[in-house]
Design brief:
Layout lengths: L1 E5 L5 E5 L11 E3 L7 E4 L9 E9 L6 E8 L5 E10 L4 E9 L6 E7 L7 E2 L4 E11 L1 H4 L35 E4 L14 H4 L2 E2 L8 H13 L5 E7 L5 H5 L9 H12 L7 E4 L11 H11 L50 E4 L17 H14 L20 E5 L5 E2 L8 E8 L7 H16 L4 H4 L8 E4 L6 E4 L10 E3 H4 L18 E3 L2 E2 L3 E4 L2 E4 L14 E3 L12 H4 L7 E3 L11 E2 L19 E3 L7 E2 L10 E10 L6 E7 L3 E6 L3 E7 L5 E12 L6 E8 L4 E6 L2 E7 L14 E3 L7 E9 L16 E5 L5 E4 L7
Length: 801
Amino acid sequence: MVMLIGLGLGMQVQVADAVTSPTGTEVSTVNDLAIANAIFDSGAARGANAADIPLTGTTDAADGAQIEARIVRADTGAEVHPWAVIATAAGGAWSGSFPAVQRSAYRLKAEVRVQGSAAAAGTMASDFMVGHVVVLIGQSEDARMFADKYDARTGGGAPLKGDWQSVPAFADDTARDSFFIATFGDAGEGETGSGTYEGNGIRAVSDMAPFTASVAHMANVVTRNAPGEKVLLINATQSGSSYVDLADDDDLDRNWNTSFADGVALVRSYGADVGVMMSSWTAAPSASGDGYRLRHYPLFTGMFAADDPSNPAGGTYVLDTDTATGENFDNLFWDLSGQNRAEAIFDAAVTRMAFHGPHRFEDNSGGTGGLIQQKQDTRISIRDWTRDAAVASIMLPKGPEIITYQNGSAANVNGEKVGVGDVAAVDWTDWSHPSDYSDDGLTARARHTGVAALYALGIGPSAAVNHEVPKFNRADWDASGAYVDLWYEASDGSTPAITTTRLARSEPPIPVTYNHRTEVAGFYINSEPAQRVEIVAGRVRVYPDGIAGAFDWSHTIFYGLGGASGIVQWPDDELDEIWKNLPIADVGFVGERLDGVAVEPMPLASDIANTLPAPIQFVTVAGSGPSFADPAGLGPNDGKLTFRVQVTPEAFGGGGQEILGQAGRVSLQRLNDGTMRVTLKDSTNTSLVGGTLSLAGIMPDNVFVDVVLALDLAGRRLRLFIDGVMTDDIQISASASGTLASNRSLNFFGSDSFGGAVGMLEVWKGYAPDGDTAALGAPYRRIAPDGAGGFVQTPGTSIWN
């Protein structure tokens, strides 16, 4: 007889009655799995803990006999899951699956028997593990972690470099049997092993067999922070490649199968599958605006984004066709279109997606100067994507971005790499890649990749389990304007201490050669680097040094703009390791040279908004005004305009609020989520910017914002600035006339749609390319509070109404 018992997750199996009397001596054997070190994914990334183990074997029992199996520890034979009926004999063979095997710190085996037989159970000769299967995709920043060419450890590859990279000590033998890799050979990066996943097999990584120093560091972080968890990492990274190179069969730079799909096929060959795919792939695939999300949406979903302005809204992507921006995909990661196309490698019910990028990029590098706007755009694009409800079935919350490591290497006068601090170091080279001449370069990136893997899987410290990345989400603006405190508060109300790598290691301060070199790097006050930022009682304290007097209502604090590198003076900041001054938080992770998790760049403006009292403002009410329009047309012009509004907007229900513009030709609208939308037409009514959504330009509810919109038809630029920082730099279409409509009037708050408090409204018939309106002189029109609840217009010779 049998009875049913539950194994959790709504599953049941038949379990043999312990007192069933044997009726014969039939025997059964169980076949080995197809590969050594087989690991089954338990579904942790989707909140599960169950793996079905496919089993086959032979038997001399009659057809129809019930085959039972149980799962035992490989080392002791102790039962882990009890006997259960899994198959029926047929023609001397059987096949079935043992369901819902949970994760274990031990290697496991299956034992099988014929139900009711007194014969000894057959035991699987090989063993298997239940844990996690992760795919990492990317290009050279990640590929070098697996490359012998960049392995600079004692006894490792590249021995002429010196022993720059350490191999961490693993905790114990369990840790040494917990992290595994499957990789192919990227000849361009000199990877260890043969050229195929099948040829390399699945290998354990430990201090005794590190593969590379970087992989050993990654493994050590995972095993120390999630002891007993078994993890298989499939390396699907290849240097010099992009998503299109990977997924377009006509692109010969990278092969879908040999550099990716064959790795997935390897685990499927023994009946497992991938639990999560990870990516911080933002070098080659990076794009301006929301291009990262929109361009790659078809690859990840088989569909176009619903808000894609250049493709069928939410429509299905047709394989092997060019998108409006030129991407062509023959293969898909997932297909959410409902067509279940065979070209999609993953099943949304099984595999999840985890972004943990973009990683750091070096601002002001190579003599180009300035913050890297495109990487800032990509950062916001990825965050928007992870919050897109249409991809909720596959998308995990964004993981921690890899910021705190050495990108690039010091160089001598001949451009040859040397160590940081070497007397010959005078320059910086290879700044697109983590350094192989430091234990804080490639190995540090690997350590933080290990942290990101724990977040993706939802295992380890509570921060990873709860997918909570440290970020500045609390602020205290001192009432006197003397300082601003910023810190992170987790969902449980705890406030993990913030520090820096330099402070955590008790290293000497960075040389104070430049004003921006402060204890904590990466902060801006309005558009200028902060000059005094310190750690005070586990919080970041920003002082108003470098600005006139104290903080007031007009100041905004930013962290992690551009490439989030903290670099202002290049290469000097690189040579003095300013990255060690970026803020990190102690959220429970441990590991050699792992001092904390980087605080997320670009916190939400509403989380750290200025709370100091604003000057007297007047109020405009949605639906009744006041609104303002020039009674005269713009008149003769050279196609240049600059608007400035200082407002505290109220929440509203829907549609769009007209903030400023020229009737029917220029428009800046605020949508109900705070996003801004820009349209622009010239004097011939030709559309130059068609309803473009600002990527980073946000006007949050009940937060004071200072907005500048500057346009120049001849220069083909339209720029948007928020609180002194450029959020959008749009190259507009060429204008045949080069002028704006002379008979159309300038206006603020058209159609009385805007509601909120107003500090200042200004417009100039000129162009402020950097957002500095002071350089334009007196405005064509200024509308300001009169101090008595009303407003005054300057000049007063004509009244806008």
